[in-house]
Design brief:
single chain; alpha+beta; 2 domains; three-stranded mixed beta sheet; rod-shaped
Length: 85
């Protein structure tokens, strides 16, 4: 494994990125000790969700929503969303 020192990486960044684009992994280090690795970026296609409301609201299973009576479901739904606000 070849380790490029930081000053070499700064000077030759474009060339190193071209090598990464070709599929290589580049290791950058200081005093021959690895610090970082440049690798090709791979998009997994998954959406990223922050989850800011995790644990703050409870959402019942979808199957149970179809079984609720409207006079029970409506106030409960309003209570759930008012707590989250």
């Amino acid at each position: 494994m070849e380790i490029f020192n930081i000053s070499h990486a700064k000077t030759h960044l474009s060339a190193l990125i071209a090598r990464v684009e070709a599929g290589e992994e580049i290791v950058i280090g200081r005093a021959d000790k690895p610090l970082a690795k440049l690798v090709p970026y791979k998009d997994d296609g998954k959406a990223c969700f922050v989850g800011a409301a995790r644990g703050k609201i409870a959402v019942p299973p979808l199957e149970s929503l179809n079984q609720w009576e409207p006079e029970i479901a409506e106030p409960l739904t309003l209570d759930l969303f008012q707590e989250a606000a």
